[in-house]
Write a structure and sequence with these properties.
The protein has twelve helices and ten strands. The protein is α/β, with parallel strands linked by helices and about 375 residues long.
């Protein structure tokens, strides 16, 4: 179990952490590939060159690292948080905030920003970093789009929800990867909450261009697809994904004239120079004609510290300092990203409403300049 985020947790907070650990163990009854000691056969890949804190020689366990002082998050609470929690629980919604154990859940829910997870709570992939349950999903809930839209309406009207992020598990067993459910959920949500901005964090649909087009045609305000890590780390971090396939998805989003967003974790084994190279590559590979003939590439980048959910997941390689996160932000803006959110506790949905507001201001100014 990871050290508590608060320095002196209350009894209630400790009980919540115990309950969270029990839920995590139930979700992950088998290793996800991050703990090589639990494999009885030869490992599929060697993590020796990627993980710096392994004991050398015949290691019996992985060395743990104490969280630094800057990794602190607020304990969930407050009336705004309570209102959203009651609606989520009452309508049997899945949120990635809860499933992934996000450290910012209390702050985001209190501010009226939530991340809804559709297509169930079971993912067909087993990424080395992710705390969402893996396995074979239950039957598809075709009523989910209506139920999600109705719940968002209640959040919009009763809990001042102003920006929603909708994400999903991977459903690789479905012919379209769940794209039809995605499109219907977006359309119904736009109709139910016309004053709310909608951001989607989508899977790669195994490179199916027609599936992606269904999401694009539904016209969400922002389309996000996380690269998660640098190219070299994909075999360990995203074994069922392909770096170039994910970059191509972002390129197609920009080619369709949409707002594109991506995010990565750091501290999972990458080098700083690889992060800088990723920024340059994404900008070059996703560039499309923009307003006034200028090129327009991927718009938003988020960078956050990787936190190991359980011993079954990839270990933390290093704690990235706030100073280095600031350097990443400067480099990202210099490479061409319009908005960069970079910090230890940053996640894809962290300050997503603020990112959307900043981007809208930038785009309005660009339009004003090109129409003079």
């Amino acid at each position: 179990m990871n050290p508590p985020l608060a320095s002196k947790p209350s009894t209630t907070n400790a009980q919540a952490q115990d309950a969270g650990l029990a839920r995590t163990i139930a979700r992950h009854p088998r290793p996800l590939g991050g703990d090589p000691l639990k494999r009885v056969d030869a490992p599929l890949i060697s993590l020796t060159g990627l993980i710096l804190n392994n004991l050398h020689g015949d290691a019996q366990q992985l060395a743990t690292k104490k969280k630094p002082a800057w990794l602190r998050a607020k304990v969930p609470g407050g009336p705004g948080y309570a209102r959203l929690r009651d609606i989520v629980d009452g309508h049997r919604l899945h949120t990635v905030c809860q499933e992934a154990g996000c450290p910012n859940m209390g702050e985001c829910w209190a501010r009226g920003v939530a991340t809804i997870m559709i297509l169930g709570d079971t993912c067909t992939r087993a990424c080395g970093f992710c705390n969402v349950k893996t396995g074979r999903p239950a039957t598809l809930d075709r009523d989910e789009p209506r139920r999600v839209a109705e719940s968002l309406r209640l959040m919009f009207e009763g809990a001042n929800l102003r920006h929603v992020v909708i994400t999903s598990v991977n459903r690789d067993e479905l012919p379209d990867g769940g794209a039809a459910i995605w499109a219907e959920t977006i359309a119904r949500s736009r109709e139910a909450c016309p004053g709310m901005s909608i951001e989607v964090l989508i899977p790669d649909f195994e490179g199916d261009a027609d599936a992606l087009q269904q999401v694009i045609d539904a016209r969400p305000h922002i389309i996000n697809h996380n690269l998660e890590t640098v190219r070299r780390m994909y075999p360990a971090v995203r074994p069922s994904a392909k770096f170039d396939r994910s970059v191509e998805l972002l390129r197609r989003v920009k080619a369709a004239g949409m707002v594109a967003k991506t995010g990565i974790m750091v501290g999972i084994g990458e080098r700083d120079d690889e992060v800088f190279e990723l920024m340059r590559h994404v900008q070059a590979a996703t560039a499309a004609p923009g307003p006034g003939g200028a090129t327009d590439a991927c718009d938003i980048l988020t960078i956050g510290q990787y936190l190991q959910p359980t011993r079954n997941h990839l270990p933390v390689d290093r704690w990235v300092t706030p100073e280095q996160f600031a350097a990443f932000k400067s480099a990202g803006l210099a490479s061409g990203f319009k908005v960069v959110e970079s910090g230890p506790l940053v996640r894809s949905s962290y300050h997503a409403d603020h990112q959307a507001d900043v981007l809208s201001t930038i785009e309005a100014e660009r339009t004003r300049r090109t129409t003079r």
